Amino acid sequence: MDTTLETPTNTLYAKEPSWLAERRSAGLDQFKNLAMPTARAEEWRFASVGKLSIDNFNPVAAPSSATLDALTERSNLVSDRAGLMVYVDDAPANFECIGRELAKQGVIYLPISEAVEQHPELMEKYFLQESTELGSQKFFGIHAATVKAGAVLYVPKGVEIEKPFVNYYWTSGSRAAVFPHTLIIAEDNSKASVVDIFFSETEENEALNISVSNIHAGVNAKVFRKVVQDWNEKTVSFQLDTTVADRDAQVKNVAVNIGAQRARFENQTRIEGAGADVKMYSLTVAEGAQEFDQRTFQTHNAPNAVSDLLYKNALLDNSRTIFSGLIKVAEGSQQTDAYQTNRNLLLDPSADANALPGLEILANDVRCSHGATTGNVDKEELFYMMQRGIPQRVAMQLMVFGFFEEVIEKIDSEELVENLRQLIHQKFSSKIS
Amino acid sequence: MKHSLEVKNLHVSIDGQAILKDFNLTVPKGEVHALMGPNGTGKSTLAKVMAGHEDYTVESGEVLLDGVNILGQEPDEISHAGLFLAFQYPMEIPGVSIANFIRAAKQARLPEGEEINAIEYYKDLYAKMDALKMDRKFTARSLNEGFSGGEKKRCEILQMAMLDPKYCVMDETDSGLDIDALRIVSEGVNHMRSEHRAFLVITHYQRLLDYIVPDVVHVMFDGRIVHSGDKELAKELESKGYDWVKEAFATASA
Question: Hey, are the CB atoms on B163 and A391 less than 8 Å from each other?
Answer without folding.
Answer: no
